[in-house]
Specification:
By secondary structure, this protein is of the alpha+beta class. About 40% of the residues lie in helices and about 25% in strands. It contains 6 helices and 10 strands. The strands form 2 sheets. The chain has a 6-stranded mixed β-sheet, sandwiched between helices. A 4-stranded antiparallel β-sheet has the order 2-3-4-6, covered by helices on one side. A hairpin with a 2-residue loop joins strand 7 and strand 8. Helix 3 runs parallel beside helix 6 and helix 4 packs antiparallel against helix 6. The radius of gyration is 22 Å and the shape is elongated. The N and C termini lie far apart (about 60 Å). About 20% of the residues are buried.
Length: about 260
């Protein structure tokens, strides 16, 4: 597994090569719930644009920790000081906490990564991606110049990275299998695009619409291989750091409503 240990094990995830036959867009184990604008009118000449969601992109550790501690502290406050506020103000405060947190998080991500209103485009001839720090790009060692020239400052404003189909050597799909009622389905969580020029691009779920992108890549018959990923402890902790305070506040808001009004 060259290419910088396959982009460091798909950036923190252990991957296992697994042979898998060619999948189709009618395979319900991969695309049972996949939907997007333009799916019903898809044709070989289509160029589908998908929205990139940046709200879950990781913030600096200290800022992420500050959000976590603040939200969790506020969530447990009603259990320490019962009825600290009158019912209506309490419900307003707790009901508004999650939307305010998500808005503040979006503003912080925009400030850290300079992203806003991003999208990606897939057609038969090219893949167009937002050229920003929200995706991971590496250069394979054999294509790096021995004495690299200094880079010019990047221009301001929305930029895109266009990868022609003819330049793509392979796209590695990292996925998790899930089994329910003796039926196995597959959840793609990352795409690793390997290009002939040595530029390798990693796109992760939670930011990019990986399942919809995979559907289009299969439809347009891009070269694909598949790797089974093992769940990462770091990835789990990162998700909990983001999701737990939100779930806690929703639960506390419901508890307060039931305690005050039912």
């Amino acid at each position: 597994m060259p290419l910088q240990t396959h982009f460091q094990g798909i950036k923190g995830h252990n991957t296992v090569m697994e042979k898998m036959g060619k999948i189709t867009i009618n395979d319900s184990t991969w695309f049972g719930a996949t939907d997007f604008k333009g799916k019903k009118t898809l044709s070989p000449t289509s160029a589908i644009r998908l929205k990139v969601v940046s709200i879950l992109y990781p913030l600096p550790f200290l800022l992420e920790g500050l959000f976590f501690i603040s939200l969790v502290s506020l969530a447990i406050l009603p259990f320490i000081y019962a009825k600290i506020w009158p019912p209506v103000p309490a419900l307003i405060i707790y009901g508004a906490t999650v939307p305010c947190y998500l808005l503040l998080r979006k503003l912080c991500i925009k400030r850290c990564y300079h992203v806003s209103g991003l999208s990606c485009l897939i057609s038969h001839g090219k893949v167009e991606l937002p050229a920003c720090h929200i995706m991971d790009v590496s250069e394979s060692m054999e294509h790096q110049p021995r004495h690299p020239e200094p880079r010019e400052p990047e221009p301001q404003g929305p930029q895109c990275l266009t990868v022609a189909r003819t330049e793509i050597q392979n796209i590695v799909v990292s996925y998790w299998p899930t089994t329910r009622d003796v039926r196995t389905s597959y959840i793609p969580h990352a795409l690793f695009i390997i290009t002939a020029s040595g530029r390798n691009i990693l796109l992760k779920a939670g930011v990019f619409p990986i399942q919809q992108m995979l559907y289009l890549l299969v439809y347009f018959d891009y070269p694909l291989t598949f790797e089974k990923a093992k769940w990462s402890l770091v990835h789990t902790l990162r998700l909990m750091l983001i999701a737990f305070p939100v779930v806690a506040h929703i639960a506390v808001t419901g508890f307060l409503y039931k305690d005050y009004f039912l």
